[in-house]
Design goal:
Length: about 375
């Protein structure tokens, strides 16, 4: 067995989660390798994050690419299995809830390699979300479950996970945010787009439930048009959403002088855009947490969230498809009546340190 651990990352929201773990491993003298599954592969969906966050080059690139769920998951599994059959690490660390997460956890476990899941126990209780399936299954087979909020432990115990496997450590994504805040503040991303501080809304949309069906996407485009009558809108479009906006012929419907369309952007630039925005409209998971930490109003176009703390203590409101509610919340934000957030326990920039101390104690002493 190799005297090292493997960090798995594959899709955009994974990279900011492995960054602080990698840096802490160096700090604590734990040997590691980085496995990039290749689930995301465009420069601005993958490599830019390695550059922005000083993550070393991946040691192994599995080149899985896009495809249906079965195809993509299977491709990652086959490639990762080949690697693990050649060499066995002490532990495979998976993060988040993407297809790469469950694929690599499953391969490792079946080859008797321990698995740690970072961001365990989050539940939307919506099994139509592919990520929910990935979360539940990854947690069932993980040996160490690191949680970001207290509710996650309740969820895990309800699913029969033994208490001694669960560790409340806080949020590694917030570690990355804390580390990069100053750098992002010093950029002029929003200015270079012609935007003014606190005078624009930032949009991210990519959930299949919002963007894969024409009738759903039309409603969202109309909501964006409404928003753009009130405030300037910047919308860096995810590849899935871009493909569908083209296929359904909806870019024309979105056209307004007040909507600026962009490509997906890097971590630091996006953080700069968040920091200077008046509000964020999203269906992302992680951005609900980042905006809550930063105290920026965030309206979530989903029926539920697996991150309830962002609603209870943060600045998040779940809008679902209630566009009247959306209009009221937009009014409140623009009139500065919107709720203020509070500090969230454990979101202090030290989560990766706590995680690596636990891993080191269990596997390297
Ligand atoms: C995936 C994750 C989702 C996460 C999101 C962040 C799963 C099930 N979903 O969804 O949880 O929130 O990443 O972005 O793992 N594409 C490109 N370039 C790329 C990658 C993808 O053009 O670098 C296009 C392809 O057409 C692909 C589509 O985007 O088919 C969707 O990519 P995929 O990784 O399958 O799912 P996401 O929607 O990105």
């Amino acid at each position: 067995m190799l005297d090292e651990i493997y960090f798995v990352a594959g899709a955009r929201p994974n990279f900011m989660k492995i960054a602080p773990l990698v840096h802490q491993s160096v700090e604590q003298g734990v040997k590691f390798k980085i496995i990039h599954t290749g689930q995301h592969y465009d420069y601005n969906m993958s490599r830019v994050f390695f550059e922005n966050l000083n993550i070393p080059e991946p040691d192994y690139f599995l080149d899985a690419g896009s495809g249906t769920h079965a195809y993509q998951t299977a491709k990652i599994m086959m490639e990762f299995e080949k690697l693990l059959l050649k060499q066995t690490p002490k532990l495979v660390v998976v993060v988040g809830d993407v297809n790469s997460t469950i694929a690599c956890a499953l391969v490792a476990k079946k080859l008797f390699v321990d698995v740690a899941h970072v961001e365990a126990g989050l539940r939307s209780f919506d099994r139509k979300m592919p990520e929910e399936i990935n979360r539940v299954l990854t947690d069932q087979i993980s040996d160490l479950l690191f949680t970001t909020e207290k509710e996650a432990e309740v969820n895990l115990k309800n699913e029969g996970i033994e208490e001694q496997k669960i560790f409340f450590v806080g949020n590694v994504m917030i570690d990355t945010l804390v580390t990069n805040l100053e750098k992002a503040k010093n950029l002029d991303t929003y200015k270079s787009l012609g935007l003014l501080k606190d005078q624009y809304a930032l949009i991210t949309l990519h959930r299949p439930s919002n963007v894969d069906k024409k009738e759903d996407l039309i409603k969202i485009v109309d909501a964006l048009n409404h928003l753009s009558e009130r405030i300037k809108v910047f919308f860096p479009v995810h590849p899935r959403t871009n493909r569908n906006l083209i296929e359904f012929g909806l870019y024309d419907r979105l056209k307004s002088d007040n909507v600026i369309i962009g490509e997906p952007i890097g971590y630091l630039e996006f953080l700069n855009l968040m920091l200077n925005s008046k509000l964020i409209l999203t269906d992302s998971g992680g951005i609900q947490e980042e905006a809550s930490y930063l105290g920026i109003p965030i309206l979530t176009l989903r029926e539920n969230t697996e991150r309830p703390i962002t609603v209870e203590k943060g600045t998040n409101t779940i809008i679902g498809r209630d566009f009247q509610l959306l209009k009221r919340q937009i009014n409140d934000v623009l009139a500065s009546r919107y709720k203020k957030g509070q500090e969230i326990e454990g979101w202090d920039g030290k989560s990766a340190k706590r995680i690596m101390e636990i891993i080191k104690k269990k596997y390297f002493t």
